[in-house]
Amino acid sequence: MIIRNRVNRQWTHGLRSGLTVLVSAVAFGFGPAPAHAQDPPHIIWVSFNPASDTPADDALPAGFIKAPDGEYTELLAASGARVTRYLTSTAPPEIAVLDDADLIIISRSVNSPHYRDDLATAWNNIATPIMMMSGYIVRSSRMGFTTGTSMDDIEETIHLNVVDPSHPIFAEVELDALNTMVNPYAHIVEFNGVVQRGLSVNTAEPGGNGVILATVGTDADPTFGGMIIGEWQKNDVVMHSGGAETDNLAEHRLLFLSGSREIGGNAVSTAGIFDLDPDGETMFFNAVNYMAGSNLVPPPKVSNLSPADGTIFANASDGFSFRASSAEDIPEDGVIVRINGVDLSGSLSISGIPKAREVTYDGLEDNMGYSVEITVTNATGTRVVSVSFDTFSEDGSLIIEAEEFNFAGGGFFDNIVLCNDFGGIIEGCYFDRVSVPGVDAVDALGFSDDGSNLDSLFRYGPAADKTEEVDTLVSTDTQRSKFADAPEGSLGPIRDYVVETLNPDDWQNYTRTIEPGTYVAYLRVSASTDQEVQLGIVTSSPSQPNQTVETLGSFRVTAGGFKTIPLTMNGNLKAFDADGQQTFRLTALDGGGNLRLNYFFLAPFTEPELPSTLSALLSDGAVTITWTGGTLQSSTNVTGPWTDLPNASSPHSVAGTGDEFFRTVSGE
Asked: What dotted CATH number matches 43-292?
C-alpha cells in the first residue's frame, strides 16, 4: 500500500473557481415589495413564532433558526402586504388589535387547544375575515367548522379536485376535464434532511352552512376526498363541544389547509413549513386577495428545476434548466444565475414567452458539486432560489456506506451484499455485524442514545438487548437505485441507513481494497449546526486497539439537509494517492448529536489544467521570462513566425539586445 498525501492547487479555471459547499434544501428569498403596490392590506398572521426570522423557543432544539412558517409571511411581505405576527396563546384574542386587520390568517403553526371552548367562541365572534390553515382548529371539538374530529396526514404530493372552478381562488389554475388540478397543490417537505409529516386534513363533513370548494383529488392518498378549501359566510351557524357551543360567525371565514405537520418528538411550534407547489402558491394568493379584498401579486415563481434540489449523481450532459413565470413580463436580463459563485447569466439559453421563461444552462461538468443561485426580477418583485446537486458517477466512484463500518475487530467486506437478515449470517453483508468498541468504532455514549426498533436497526447483534453501540437510523436522503432496485430481504424492502447521534470524537473505521490511483473524497451528510468531520487513514493494525491515524483532511459541514461536502485542507480541495488495502476513519470533531452520515466516496482525481501566465523583467541588461503552463515560443517579429523553445524552463533569461518577442502556447 502506498499513501502519498498532497494538497492540490486551488481550482481557478472555469466553474471550479470558487467551489462552494452545497446547501441542503431549496431556500427562497424575496426582494423588496413591488413599486406598483398601493394601499397594501394589513394581514395579521397568528403563530407560535414571533417573527419570520425568529422561531419559537421550543423550535430551537430541532435546528430552526427562522420561523418554520416564515416563508409564508416573507412571501406576503414581498408582495406588498403589511404583515403583523400575533402570538397564539391560551389568552382570549385581543379584539382591538385584531380589528385593525383586513385579514387574519391563523397559520398551521398553532396549538389547537388555543381554539376550543370559550376561546373558540371568542375567535368566531371576531368581526374580521379569518383564513384558517390548520385542520386541527376547525374540528367539532375546537371551533366547529366540521362535524367531526377525524384527522389524516397526506403521504405524497397531492392534486386537488375543484368543486367550483369559477371561484376566484382557482383563477389561473389549470384543471383537467374532471376539474382536478393538472399540476400539484402541495408536497411532503424536509427540514435539515428529515422528512416531515404531511399536511393534516380533517376528513369530516363541513359544519353549519359550510361549502366545500376543493378536496384531495389524489386517490392513492389516505386523505382522498378530504376538504382542503371551504368557506363560511357571515352569520353562518357553527357548533362545537364547549364554550357557547353554537356560534353565529361574525364575518367571512375560509379554510385553506397548508403547512407541514411536526414530526414525532418535536414541539408543535415546528409545524407549518411551506409546502405549496407553484399552483398551490397561486391559489394561496388568490385566497388572500379574495378574503382581504386586495390585489397582491406574488413575485416571479421558479419551477421545473432540473436537476431538482438535492439530486445526486445527475447527468452533466443533461444540463441545468428551470422555468421562471409571473403575472408580469420577465425581461431576459431579469434572470440571473450564479453557479458555484460565478455569474453565468451570459451563458444561458432563454426561450418561451415573457411571462413564462424557459431557462437552460448546458455547461455542467462531470464529477462536480454544484451550488446554484437563481434570481428572477420583474415589476412584481424579486425571487431568489438556491438549489444544490452533483454530477458525480456511481459507476466511476468507490462509495462507502457510513453504516458499513468494520466489525469483529477489523473485519470488512470488499464484495458487499445487501441484506436484512438477523445475526450477521450472510457473507458479504454488514447487516447485524457488530463492531468491537475501540477497535472498529467508538461511540462515547454507547447504545444509551439509540433506539432498538426497525427504523434504527442496522447493526443489532445476537443478544436480547442491543449490542452494537454505534447509532443508526433509516435514511431520509434521496433514495438511490442500489436500494430502490434491491430484491427484498427477510425483513422486507432493503433500506438505506445513516450513522447518527454522533458525539465529539466518535469515530468509525472502514477497510476496503483500493485500486491504485489519485482520489478526492466527498461526504454525504446532514447536520443542524455547522461542524467538522475528519477523514484519516489508520497506519497501524486495524484489528488492534490504540491505532495510529494519519489525517487526510476534513469535511466542513454546514447546517442544513443532506449535501455533498468535499474533503479539504486549508481551504483547498485535498487529493491523495492510494493503493491496496486501506482503513479509512471518519471522526466527528464536534458531534453534538445532530450529525447524520449517509456515505462517503472516492472519485478519481485529475489535476486541473491551470491557465498560462507570462511575465518579463528587465534587469542588468538581461530579460527574465517567467511563465506557467504551455510551451515558450520566441520570434523576432510580433506577428511571427514563432519557434518553440522546448528545453526552456521558467525562469528563462536572454540578453536584452535586439528585437525578440515571447509567448506561450498550449502543449496540446
From this structure: 3.40.50.880
